[in-house]
Amino acid sequence: MASATASMSSHAIVSSRKATQIGATRQVNLAQSLNLNSSGSISASSRRRLTVGPLHAVEPAKRGDSVVPPAASKGGAVVEREVAAVDYEKLAEGLERASPLEIMDKALEMFGDDIAIAFSGAEDVALIEYAHLTGRPFRVFSLDTGRLNPETYQLFDKVEKHYNIHIEYMFPDSTEVQDLVRTKGLFSFYEDGHQECCRVRKVRPLRRALKGLKAWITGQRKDQSPGTRASIPVVQVDPVFEGMDGGAGSLIKWNPVANVEGTDIWSFLRTMDVPVNSLHSQGYVSIGCEPCTRPVLPGQHEREGRWWWEDAKAKECGLHKGNISQQEASKANTNGNGLTLNGVADIFESKNIVNLTRPGVENLLKLENRSEPWIVVLYAPWCPYCQAMEESYVELAEKLYGSGVKIGKFRADGDQKQFAQKELQLGSFPTILFFPKHTARPIKYRSEKRDVESLLTFINALR
C-alpha cells in the first residue's frame, strides 16, 4: 500500500495487508510499473516488501456505500517484491508532453485495481474511453449527490452499458443531508455560498471513497478555471485527501487531460462516438448538481455556468480545493497600516479605494442626489472569492481615479452581515453595488465576471 514519505513529492508503495474504510485490501502487480526511466526516478533508500496478487475484473462486487474492490475476496500466491519511492514531480515533468492515452496507461499500469476514475457525468467520460483504449482493467466511481440532473443519471446508465462496467456510486450521509436541509432549507447555498452543501453531498463521500484507493484519476484541465486549475500537473501527490494507508502523501492524483483544451476533448468524443450528457446540446458545458448548474452564453467561460452567483476565478466545490492558491491567504497578517482585522489581513488595500464604515454606507443609502456615483464591494477578507478578485478591483480603482466615480469597500461579515443582507442586497461574498448620482437605491452587479473590463462595462452603462 501507499506510504507517505518525508517529501510531499514522493510516494512509497509498500506492503501490509490491513482492512480499509472502503472495502478490503486489494492485491496489485506493480512489478513493471516501477521500472521507470528518466521520466521518474527511483530511490533505493526506501525499499520495502510488497504483497502482490493477481489482477482481476473491472466490475465492483456491489453498488453500496463503499468502493468495493472486485478482487477483494480472491486469493493468490503471495510474492515478495522490492519496490521503491517514486518522485512524482519528476514523473510529472517526464509526462508533461505525453498524450492522455499514455498518461492513462501509466496510471493504470502503476496502480492496477488500487486506482479509480472519478466520473461526474460530463465530458470527463473521455477518461473512461481512454482507459478502455489501453486494454487494461479499470474502475469508475461517481458521487451521487441526490441533486443531479435526470440527464446525468441517464448518461450513467448509457456509460455502464456501453463499456460493460458497473459504476461504483458513493452517496452522502442521509443524517447529514437531513440536518442541513431542516436547518437551512433546500437552497441555502444561494445565500451563504455552496461550500457547506458541497461538503456534505460531495466532499465527505469522496473522502470515504478515496480511503479505499492508492490513486485516483480526474478530468481536470488547465483551461477549465482561470483562478484554480491553470497550473495542475498531470500527476501529483494529492494535497488534500488521504489514501488507504492514511496520512499526508498516501494518495496520488492523476490528471491525464490537464494539458488538453476543451475543444480537443470534444473532437475526441465525437470521433470515438462516445455517449455524452444530452445537457451539452442545450448549452451546458461544465455540469454539476441541478440547482447549481446552468447553460452558458456564447463567449462565456465554461465554469461560469457553475455557482454563477459567486466569483468566476475561484470556483471549486471542495473536491479539488488544493488547486486554490494559498499565496493570498498566507500574506503577513497586517494590512497597509500594520493592523489586523480579527486576525485576518484586510484586502482591497489601495489609496484609490475608500474604506467605508457603517455610518458612511448608511449615508450613501440616504442620499438621493449624490455629487458622484459610487461603486462599492461588500466583502469579507477571509473569503477566497473576495481574495480572487482583489487584483482586478484594485486595477479598476486605478483606472477610475479622477473619472468622477468613487470606489469604495465595506466589510460586511460579522456584526455587519445582517445589516448588509437587509439593506445592501448581500447574498454571498463578494457583492458589488453601484450607487447612481440621482437614484437612492443601489444597483446590484449580478454577473459573476469580475474582471476589469466587465466591471467597467457595468459602470459605464449606468453612470
Task: Write up this protein.
The chain is of the alpha/beta class and 463 residues long. Helices cover 28% and strands 15% of the residues. The protein contains 13 helices and 15 strands. The chain has helices spanning 88-95, 100-111, 125-134, 150-163, 174-184, 189-192, 195-210, 262-272, 358-366, 384-388, 390-400, 417-423, 452-462; strands at 2-4, 10-13, 42-52, 79-87, 115-118, 140-143, 168-170, 215-217, 235-237, 252-254, 354-355, 374-379, 406-411, 431-435, 443-445. The strands form three sheets. A six-stranded mixed sheet has the order 7-6-5-8-10-9. A five-stranded mixed sheet has the order 11-13-12-14-15, with helices on both faces. β6, α4 and β7 form a beta-alpha-beta unit. α2 packs across α3. It is elongated, with a radius of gyration of 25 Å. The termini are far apart.
Summarize the structure.
This protein has 463 residues and is α/β, with parallel strands linked by helices. The protein contains 13 helices and 15 strands.
Shape: elongated
Portion in helices = 25-40%
Q: Can you count the helices?
A: 13
Assembly classification: single chain
What structural category do the secondary elements indicate? alpha/beta
Q: What is the arithmetic mean of pLDDT?
A: 77
Q: What is the rounded Rg?
A: 25 Å
Stretches with pLDDT under 50, minimum 5 residues: 1-66, 68-83, 312-318, 324-342
For the biggest β-sheet, the strand order reads 7-6-5-8-10-9
Beta-strand content bin: 5-15%
Instruction: Please describe the biggest sheet, giving its number of strands, its sense, and whether it closes into a barrel.
Output: 6 strands, mixed
Q: Gap between N and C termini, in Å?
A: 63 Å
Strand tally: 15
Order of helices and strands: EEEEHHEHEHEHHHEEEHEHEHHEHEEH
